[in-house]
């Protein structure tokens, strides 16, 4: 199934600014977050779609590439990391491969390439991502064969390839073009051997599970990547290994929803607390904090706790915690509580009752105006 346009996903115009993008993403994330839609597979997919769109459009370089080439800009992602906005193709490498093969690679034959990069996804709890963590991981990879030291030769003896004369590349003519490709005899190594290593069967590399310790810095978020140089697959003999890219994915939290360095949560309060005012305690990532609920608070009011969010992994500034008050309707009432509520409701009589319900008054005034327009 083809991907939707990123601007359409977020519901913004193609000239939307950073603030508009951020607000649109926040609305989308709050609407489709898995915590708000438990068990809803379509909501989870929509949440992922919103996050992917924002990750591209909020990055100046990626946005320019997307505006020029659409989703095709990310179809040649980093090896091991898959296609997509997490890592777009190096266009210089693409054109270099094409024109290098046709015209001879800038005047010199190319030796064996470095080992492949490897991608690994590390899932973290929100608390782990915020505080930072060191974790051991196991990754399947191709490592240098120990018995032959990566040469592929059982006795270590290597001969210059007679086909390419040690260059690792062969050149042939196709029409008016001079083409170049890895030597089919030595597979780009430039060397051959008579006795292949029995451990790796001459490949110079063997499959194994590598155990590594990864230090995750405090403040990372989903989509952030950590590069471990030289920890990817071993390359052919004489070439360096690739790199390992650890991509972070933060699991949904039962209380908080993260938006950049800010956190959002809902705080349930009783109707009496909302009407009379109160002080309530709320959780933060560093313990509890207090919120003073003023009298006559309506559901949906948001309270901001400065510096109670996430410390940025880049700027080291700290985000805020936004607590949304949600007035709960009481349930499982006793007979006494019902009687008290009946007496309380009886006090709302006549036109004077409307001054106690600001939203209700506005609503019914709107309804009256609607019907007046309908009958006129």
Automatic annotation (TrEMBL):
Where are the residues of the annotated region Disordered? 223-242
**Upper taxonomic lineage:** Bacteria, Pseudomonadati, Pseudomonadota, Gammaproteobacteria, Lysobacterales
Domain named CR-type is located at: 132-209
Report if keyword Repeat is assigned.
Answer: yes
Task: Please describe what this protein does.
Answer: Participates actively in the response to hyperosmotic and heat shock by preventing the aggregation of stress-denatured proteins and by disaggregating proteins, also in an autonomous, DnaK-independent fashion. Unfolded proteins bind initially to DnaJ; upon interaction with the DnaJ-bound protein, DnaK hydrolyzes its bound ATP, resulting in the formation of a stable complex. GrpE releases ADP from DnaK; ATP binding to DnaK triggers the release of the substrate protein, thus completing the reaction cycle.
Which SMART domains does this entry report, sorted A to Z? DnaJ (SM00271)
Entry domain remark: The J domain is necessary and sufficient to stimulate DnaK ATPase activity. Zinc center 1 plays an important role in the autonomous, DnaK-independent chaperone activity of DnaJ. Zinc center 2 is essential for interaction with DnaK and for DnaJ activity.
Give the organism the record lists.
Luteimonas soli
Binding of Zn(2+) 1, residues: 145, 148, 197, 200
Q: Enumerate the InterPro entries for this protein.
A: DnaJ (IPR012724), DnaJ_C (IPR002939), DnaJ_domain (IPR001623), HSP40/DnaJ_pept-bd (IPR008971), HSP_DnaJ_Cys-rich_dom (IPR001305), HSP_DnaJ_Cys-rich_dom_sf (IPR036410), J_dom_sf (IPR036869)
What's the cofactor? Zn(2+)
One Pfam assignment = DnaJ_C
Q: Which CDD domains does the annotation name?
A: DnaJ, DnaJ_C, DnaJ_zf
Give the cofactor note text: Binds 2 Zn(2+) ions per monomer.
Q: How does it assemble?
A: Homodimer.
State the family it belongs to.
Belongs to the DnaJ family.
Q: Which PANTHER family match?
A: CHAPERONE PROTEIN DNAJ, DNAJ HOMOLOG 1, MITOCHONDRIAL-RELATED
What GO molecular function annotations does the UniProt record carry, in alphabetical order?
Answer: oxidoreductase activity
Q: What name does UniProt use for this protein? A: Chaperone protein DnaJ
| Record's keyword terms, sorted | Chaperone, Cytoplasm, DNA replication, Metal-binding, Oxidoreductase, Repeat, Stress response, Zinc, Zinc-finger
Q: Which residues bind Zn(2+) 2?
A: 161, 164, 183, 186
List locations, semicolon-separated: Cytoplasm
Span of zinc fingers (CR-type)? 132-209
The stretches annotated as CXXCXGXG motif repeats are 145-152, 161-168, 183-190, 197-204
Zinc in keyword set: yes
């Amino acid at each position: 199934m083809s991907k939707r346009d990123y601007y359409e996903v977020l519901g913004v115009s193609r000239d939307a600014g950073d603030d508009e993008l951020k607000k649109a993403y926040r609305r989308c994330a709050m609407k489709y977050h898995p915590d708000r839609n438990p068990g809803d597979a379509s909501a989870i997919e929509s949440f992922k779609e919103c996050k992917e769109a924002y990750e591209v459009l909020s990055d100046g370089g990626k946005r320019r590439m997307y505006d020029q080439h659409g989703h095709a800009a990310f179809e040649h992602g980093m090896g091991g990391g898959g296609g997509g906005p997490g890592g777009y193709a190096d266009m210089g490498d693409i054109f270099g491969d094409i024109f290098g093969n046709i015209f001879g690679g800038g005047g010199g034959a190319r030796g064996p390439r470095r080992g492949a990069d490897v991608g690994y996804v590390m899932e973290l709890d929100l608390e782990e991502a915020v505080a930072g963590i060191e974790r051991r991981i196991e990754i399947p990879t191709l490592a240098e064969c120990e018995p032959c030291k990566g040469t592929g030769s059982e006795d270590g003896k290597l001969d210059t390839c007679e086909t390419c004369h040690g260059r690792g590349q062969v050149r042939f003519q196709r029409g008016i073009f001079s083409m170049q490709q890895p030597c089919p005899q030595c597979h780009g190594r430039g060397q051959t051997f008579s006795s292949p290593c029995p451990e790796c069967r001459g490949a110079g590399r063997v499959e194994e599970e590598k155990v590594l310790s990864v230090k995750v810095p405090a403040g990372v978020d989903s989509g952030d990547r950590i590069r471990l140089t030289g920890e990817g697959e071993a390359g052919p003999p004489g070439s360096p290994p690739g790199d390992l890219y650890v991509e972070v994915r933060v699991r949904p939290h039962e209380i908080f929803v993260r938006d950049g360095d800010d956190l959002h949560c809902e705080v349930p309060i009783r109707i009496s607390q909302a009407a009379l005012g109160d002080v309530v305690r709320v959780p933060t990532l560093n313990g509890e904090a207090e919120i003073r609920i003023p009298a006559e608070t309506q559901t949906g009011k948001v309270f901001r706790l400065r510096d109670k969010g996430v410390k940025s992994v880049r700027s080291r500034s700290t985000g805020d915690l936004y607590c949304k008050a949600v007035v709960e309707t009481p349930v499982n009432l006793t007979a006494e509580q019902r009687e008290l509520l009946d007496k309380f409701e009886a006090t709302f009589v006549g036109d004077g009752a409307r001054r106690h319900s600001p939203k209700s008054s506005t609503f019914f005034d709107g309804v009256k105006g609607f019907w007046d327009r309908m009958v006129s």
